[in-house]
Amino acid sequence: MSLRAFTTLVLLASTSLAAQIPAANHPMAVTPLATTLPVDPKLRVGVLPNGIHYYIRQNAKPEKRAELRLVVNAGSVLESPDQLGMAHMLEHTAFNGTTHFAKNDLIKYLESIGVRFGADLNAYTGFDETVYILPIPTDTARIVNQAFTILEDWAHGQTLDPTEVANERGVVREEWRGGRGAGERMLQQWLPVAFKGSRYAERLPIGTEQSIMAATPAKLRAFYSSWYRPDLMAVIAVGDFDPKAIEAQIRTHFSSIPAAKATAPHRPVYDVPGNKLPLVAIASDKEATSSNVNLIYKMPAEATHTVGDYRRDLIERLYLQMLNERFTEITQKPDAPFLAAGASKDAFFARSTEAFTLEANVKDGGIEAGTEALIKEARRVDQFGFLQSELDRARQNLLRSYERSYAERDKTQSGSFVQEYIGNYLHGEAIPGIEYEYRIAQELAPTITLADVNQMARKWITDENRVIIAMAPVKTGIALPTRDGILAAFTRANNAQIAAWTETLSNDALIPTPPAAGHIVSSKPIPGIGGVEWKLSNGARVIIKPTDFKADEVVLSAYSPGGTSLAEDKDYMSAALASQVVGLGGIGSFNFIDLNKKLSGKAVRVSPSITETTERLSGSGSPKDLETMFQLIYLDFTAPRLDTVAFAAFKAQVGPFLANRGADPNSVFADSLTAIM
Fold first, then answer.
1. 565-579 in b/e burial notation, b at 16+ Cβ within 10 A?
2. How far apart are CA 542 and CA 416, in angstroms?
3. Exposure of 33 by Cβ count < 10 A (0-12 exposed, 13-18 middle, 19+ buried)?
4. Cα distances (angstroms) measured from residue 614 to each of 5, 424, 562, 578, 611
5. What beta strand segments (E) does 465-553 contain?
6. What is the pLDDT of residues 143-152, one digit of tens each?
7. pLDDT in tens, 408-432
8. Which residues are CB-neighbours of 671 under 8 A, at least 6 positions away?
9. What percent of the chain has pLDDT above 90?
């Protein structure tokens, strides 16, 4: 494709650019590691006399809107044997009748003020919490007051009308039925094994069909009165409002709720018990569409309260980033032992337990080989460590992400803050604010050494507390994995001779010889939007529109008419997959992996694509990285790179997906509908 063919190229440019970002001078650490992390001074936190916590933050994005949450520190894990599914059922009945809103009046009222049920207004129930979600407009005091009346009703005023409960049983059963696919069936196979001895294996939030249809107002009220109480609740409000007025609303609506009685049940914290021998769970289903293995290493959860804890978290992020970069590089090889792989460290259901997880999507029949490959890569890091060049790139990317978050601090959407505060209330996650985090990350990141990062594998990968979950489709001619086979893969990996990781890095410029510059043939303003239209000497039409939506981002979109609709039938699949193949090939003299390394520390992306009726380029970049963004655009036109190795790897990845697609009823239905239409 030629640039001349592109009829329109649109740039939405930040007006504030990056001038407001202080230089990252990376001073050596001076803050004592024992220093307690502060609470963001822009956040108002308090506790009412009855025990209800509240979080209030003024935030202007989006304008004249607010995000409200009622967070209940209670979920399905607290249910008694005759209450299965009742925590989730209560989340439903909260919309079907409360003190101030009869039956469905609540939904009708909210939809009348522009809050859509499902899309905006919603709720979710987990093992340990229930969260009610209420976004509202804030330009009318009456609406804001009514919103807190709704939260108050959810907390203390559910009516649990017998007719509404009976009606809702059918609704929840359909939700249960809708989830009864291959994934759910395999979950029921591996959950009792992976969570052996844990209450989490027996308390899925949805409940069972029998428990759902046996729901009664009495059962719901028993759970409601036991666990919906002030000492287990938090109200969160983030948005475009006066914080003092919102605090007054919270005090007005929630202070009168009676405190928990002395006889109220203790809120227990359940654990996932440890295990000496590995727990191996193997699940299969004829409608499964992929083979996957998860190697899970359980460990006690670590809180983040001090600067030292924060430094530990940075080390973990660097370790995971570097290990995942290696996995990505491996998947670019046609003979890769897995189609995709990744490493993560997250909470493992119970709040007191975390898990380091190595996971891989493999070819059918390849779970044991994939398991062996995952362990080998972890052992490679354990034995030889990472390279200094890997750490340098990871650190660049880490600090750049902080820099961008800091630059966008006044553009952050209210919903992002809400999630942080939910995490603080339920899990004690630190909330120091981006201003503090940006400064402390600049201070701490340069002090992190290879030795700091390399010790993670030795700490996380242990012989005890291992859980292996394997999932695969049932297919004629392909044997399912076995416990003995998976454990043998561990033995082979542990006994294998492993070589150190190597890499070669190019110092070449993206464009060795800059192209001859063109020029602007004509320029004219675009009335009404504050934009300008240019005609370039090569025929391209360019529209520039300054904006203040983001502080550190320029967005680009370019298109020309055409697309896959013009391809001959015999070439259609090649045209449809062309943009993916081109993207995996790299550009110029850089393959996909080397290009990503070359772009370390830069906030920039450019992606070509082909739709049914257009050829497109989309991209974005920080103002400080615009030169790189335009170099990538130029190379996409002039130097796309054919990488036969990457193409072979791509076919190896796509093949299993297409081979199993017909096993998925939803895909079969969609294909049939498309063919008929």
1. eebeeeeeeebebbb
2. 34
3. middle
4. 11, 46, 5, 13, 5
5. 466-473, 520-526, 531-536, 541-547
6. 999 999 999 9
7. 999 999 999 999 999 999 999 999 9
8. none
9. 83
